[in-house]
Structures are given as structure tokens and as C-alpha cells.
# Entry
Amino acid sequence: MSKKLFFIFVLALWLLILGFGLKISAESDWQDKVVFCDVGEGDGILITSKKQKSIVIDGGPDNSILFCLGKNLPWSERRIDLLVISHPDSDHTRGAIEVLKRYKVLKILFSGALSDTQIFQELLTALEEEVKEGALIEEAVLGKTFDLENLKISVLLPKESFWQKKPNRDHQAMVVVLLKINNSLALFSGDLEKPEAEELVSNSQLPKVSLLKVPHHGSKNSLATNFYQALSPQIAVISVGKNNRYNHPHKEVLEYLTHQNIKLFRTDIQGTINCLPVNFSWHCQAEGDKF
# Structure
């Protein structure tokens, strides 16, 4: 064998081994995990599974979520199986638009409720482009479910269709979803306000959940004590920005959570929060800490 052929053979073998190693590495990066990304004053959540499935809930006020996705997804992964948009406020939607631009999103779940805001028009444009690439848009309404291997998403709100309708009040068409990953439950509440939270409790058999995303960044208007009592969470996460102009989270909410002995995590203090499902519950800690 000539030196040239030998060199080509060795190079091809090296590339084959490298490619196989990268594939193994990428597969090993997948975990059953919920990541509350530190996106400032807003929500941006990533859910992944060992079955190589991914869900993103909202995206925060800017492109910060892209850095979080880059850290927590395998380096070669450019697909999101499901994007959930809780509502079209900019502190939840701006980053979601960036996700639509940078990733191939297979399904998008949102209420379809109308809004007069500029960010809503930008969202519609981004959705139209993603549909052209083959994405499916699903209306969020009570009873809708998605099964992604060991991940299951169930829509709890809105209870009625808001498709192409304008809600009578802000956050009336809030998309609230329940996650089941293996045997652990978590509830993601978006900017749920007290009237909708109380309605959800009065008209539904809410399951007990171990992990709760605190509604509306811990605002006073979101505190519905019967909502917390019905869910009975062990862990609560507040996604909120440092020194925000709304003074979130409100003192009354923090005092209530403390009084109920609910373990609290805050992205403004601890940064990105990682939660792993463990024996029907969750183990959560700041990103820099070791599990």
C-alpha cells in the first residue's frame, strides 16, 4: 500500500472513530431534566428526556434562552419537539421568537388568542415561517395532551377556545400545562392571575404536584392560596429578573411560601435552576452546583 493510500485509510478511520465518539457523547448529554433558564424578568424553560425529546416553554424577553439551550442540549441538536407559548407578552415571547428562528420546531402549542401588540405580530410572522418549514400549530385548550416518549404534557388552561378571539382581560387565555416525566409531576403556570387560578381550582380536580413554577414571577395579583393548597407543591421556582421595576416577587408571596414550608428557588438569586425527577418528586439546585 502506497503512503498516500495509507494516509487516506488512517484519516478515514480516524474520522469514523471521531464521528462515533461524538455520537456517543451527544447521546449521553440527554437527561430527564427541567431547566428554569435565567432569562431575566420573564420565563424560559427547557425540558429534556433521556429519550432525546425536548420541550421549550416560553423564551424570556430577549435571546438569553439561546445560551441556556446551547448549554443544556447536545452541541449538534437543532430540533425542538414542542414549543409552548403561554401568552404573547414580550417577557415570554421575544425569546420564543428567537428559538423559532434558530431551531427546527416540530410542534407549537398556544391559545391563538388575539393581541394588539407589536410583539404578537412578530410572533405570528415567526410562526408562519416555521409552518412553511413543516411545523404544526396546535391550539391550547383543556384536554389537549402530548406524549413524547416518557414526557407527557397536558393542558389545564384555557378551558375554552380563544382561537382568533381577543380575551376580555389580560392573561385570561393563559396556557397552563402539567408535565409528567416518569412518575414526577410539575405544573407550569405562566402569568396565571388569581381569578383564573381560583377558577382552575373550583372547576378541576388538580393533582398534587411536587414542583410548581410560581405564577407571574411571584406578583401579588397571582397569589391564590387555595391554588397552592390544592397542588401542595414541595418545591417552587420563581423565574424573575434582578432589581426588576415591578418589584417581583412580592413580599406577601414569599412569606406565604415560607409559611407553607415550600422550598423556594429564584433565578434572580441563584441563576439557572436544574431539576431532576426522583422517586415521584424532584431534586432541584442551582446550575453551578453538582447533583
In short: The chain has one domain: 30-286. Residues 188 and 252 are 21 Å apart (CA to CA). The domain at 30-286 is CATH 3.60.15.10 (Metallo-beta-lactamase; Chain A). Residues 3-28 form the longest helix (26 residues).
